[in-house]
Amino acid sequence: MNIGEAATRSGVSAKMIRYYESIGLIDAPARTAAQYRVYADDDVHTLRFVRRARDLGFSLEETRELIALWRDRSRASADVKKLAMAHVRDLEAKAAELKAMADTLRHLAAHCHGDHRPDCPILADFAAQAPTQGKA
For residue 116, what are the domain limits? Predict the structure, then answer.
């Protein structure tokens, strides 16, 4: 199948397929004499695997590790679980950060009159905050 059909079947855009190939995340497929890519069902299966990992928020490097574990039939499932649980901890930390941001904004908005006056506790809070090291 061509790249368009592989993209449709896998749910990964042709542009992303080319990118994943260029960074070595997935193996380059066979090519015709005219140098067109030719994908097999196994390639589509790998692309679906990549899409699922990326949909769950795994980084490219983590996805690379997952692919290696998936292909290694002598792997220990404990290695896969360790990687997955580390990702869960990262997601939970990000979720806590997002909740804290939402709570702060909710608090500031609750104290804003939201009327025609220029006084705004939201902007006042932003202006009063000292910049932190390494943050924009």
Answer: 77-129
Q: How many CB atoms are closer than 10 A to CB 12?
A: 21
Q: How many other β-carbons are positioned within 10 Å of the β-carbon of residue 27? A: 12
Residues 65 and 105 placed together within one structural domain of the fold:
no
Question: Cβ(69)–Cβ(80) under 8 Å?
Answer: yes
84 shares a domain with 52: no
Helix (H, G, I), strand (E, B) or coil at 30: strand
Provide the residue-wise pLDDT of the chain in tens; the chain has 136 residues: 999 999 999 999 999 999 999 999 999 999 999 999 999 999 999 999 999 999 999 999 999 999 999 999 999 999 999 999 999 999 999 999 999 999 999 999 999 988 898 889 999 999 997 666 666 6
Q: Where are the beta strands (DSSP E) in 8-56?
A: 30-31, 37-38
Q: How many helices (H) and strands (E) does the chain have?
A: 6, 2
Q: How many other β-carbons are positioned within 10 Å of the β-carbon of residue 29? A: 18
Taken as a whole, the chain contains a residue count of 136
